[in-house]
Amino acid sequence: MATKESQAGKLVRGIKSVFKAPVKPASAAADRATPLQDARKAGIEPTHEMLQKSAKEHMFLHFTRHSPYQKADMPIITRASGHHFWDSTGKRYFDGISSLFSVNAGHGRERLAEAAAKQMKELDYFPLWSHAHPAGIELAERLISYAPKGLSRVFFTTGGGEANETAWKLAKQYFKMTGKPMKHKVLTRAVAYHGTSHGALSLTGIPSMKKMFEPLVPSTFRVPNTNWYRAQDDFATEEEFAIWAANRVEEMILFEDPDTVAAFFLEPVQNSGGCFTSPKIYFDMVREICNKYDVLLVADETIDGFGRIGTMFASELYGFEPDMLVCAKGMTSAYAPIGALMISERLFEPFKHGTTLFPHGYTYGGHPVSAAVALANLDVFEEEDLVGNVARNTGAFRATLEKLKDLPIVGDVRGEGYFFAIELVKDKNTKETFNDAESEKLLRGILSHRMFEEGLYCRSDDRGDPVVQLAPPLTIGQDEFNEIEQILRGCLDEAWRAF
Ligand SMILES: Cc1ncc(COP(=O)(O)O)c(C=O)c1O
Questions:
Q1: Which residue in 48, 60, 70, 265 has its CB near the most CB atoms, within 10 A?
Q2: Substitution site in 303, 309, 367 for ligand 1 pocket (most atoms within 8 Å of beta carbon)
Q3: Percent above pLDDT 70 for the chain
């Protein structure tokens, strides 16, 4: 007992001493102020050197190898306009990939900034938790007006990964509420990327991206993607290959037991692996298979949506009606973060009754400022007919990029709309690809570096076989296609010679 009292006494003394601790003088805030804060207060533009120093000390970038930045400078992007952006040294780049497949309407549109400011002054923020707001309501109505037939409800998120996560959770709850509680598994395609949260990463078909985070959410299964370039030797026609690939979806549903399979996620044009397209028959068959086994078909149009492939949504181009559609990026042309899951009325039906609710949401999902920016962005899309521009020019873009096929390193040029991949090979005749070490040297050692020097920003990616990817703003035309081709020609030629 005596011991306990002395411990309590110590505790009280400790607390008293904390309260007696000298209060920080008022000037402490000034002592704490950072060099960049000081510069801002003094109205001085931070220099490249100031930004570099601070970035190296404090920044942890996404999907980034940081070792080079212990010594070398990291690129710091300071401004953008049209299809160009500038770094902190003043160097200009052609934004060949719409920053991250996102800035579809191009950079620097004051109208979108004004829409954000107007919305902030009117209603800065309110969550979509038990309440709606005008910008969200109008955006939901507008999205549904562009969406494939059958979709009628919108659940807002802050990006594509959250929308995929939402789709899976909704599929599970829907089947639990409608008498099929065992339906919870999902199928996705090999090498596809669907996001990084635990659920969305579990949907992702790229083992190297997952291995540090295993065990992930169980119950996801992979089916083949539609990489026609690599299948050509085994099938007489692309249709024949597409039928084979669609049959693998049915096979996997049967392997796993249809009573346990809830959904199949696919990107109509798959980004990861390099812009895999499919003939219409693939989508027709997949739709039929999903109907047959009551499996929900989810179109992940995070990249494909908002004109990227020449129609507002890619599902429209391929003429199929998904049960759910995920979209994000191009909705605001990335001026503000937002994502959405659109669903059919059938999936909403159980939520119309009794005390049912979907216990799921995000603080910033459908943020009014993002919604207002999206509406202004979609006005730009309509007034400038950006989707029509892509549909009219996709053939010319493809033809310009196909000129690169005369280079020994270019094995394939594929894609749709303003979304193309150039696959790089060691031997065009045998289609032999580069091994991991060679791919590392080719993409990160040579190509990225050379393209950066030449002022072309595009993606060199080896999540599948090595590819260079292009997804420029939807505003560009033939002059810019030529510029891209010329820069790429020089860089690819040099890369080949360096091998
Ligand atoms: C097809 C696809 N799905 C999902 C995502 C994840 O989107 P976010 O980064 O907005 O979560 C991406 C991102 O690039 C994507 O390309």
A1: 265
A2: 303
A3: 94
Instruction: Flag whether pLDDT at 16 surpasses 50.
Output: no
Task: Name the token pair of 306.
Answer: 């908002």
Condensed to tens digits (0 to 9), the pLDDT of residues 423-468 reads: 999 999 999 999 999 999 999 889 998 999 999 999 998 888 999 9
Pocket of ligand 1 contains residue 304 by CB under 6 Å: no
Sign of the Cα pseudo-torsion (119, 124, 128, 130, in order) = negative
Q: 276-334, pLDDT tens digit by residue?
A: 999 999 999 999 999 999 999 999 999 999 999 999 999 999 999 999 999 999 999 99
pTM: 0.94
Structure tokens at 161: 């990964």
Q: Are residues 492 and 351 in the same domain?
A: no
CATH number of the domain enclosing 139: 3.40.640.10
- Give the sheet arrangement for strand 185-189, strand by strand: 151-157, 339-344, 324-327, 296-300, 261-266, 185-189, 220-223
Distance from Cα 49 to the centre of ligand 1, integer Å: 33
Q: Using alpha carbons only, what angle is made at residue 82 by residues 77 and 83, rounded to the nearest 5 degrees?
A: 70
CB environment 363-373: b (16+ within 10 A), e (fewer): ebbbbbbbbbb
Q: What is the pLDDT of residues 44-57, one digit of tens each?
A: 999 999 999 999 99
Residue 441 structural domain: 94-105+385-497
Closest CA to 139 of 124, 160, 157: 157
Per-residue tokens: 267: 């990107």
Do 228 and 138 lie in one domain? The reply is: yes
If you measure from the C-alpha of residue 203 to the centroid of ligand 1, how many angstroms do you get, rounded to a whole number?
A: 11
115 and 248 in a common domain: yes
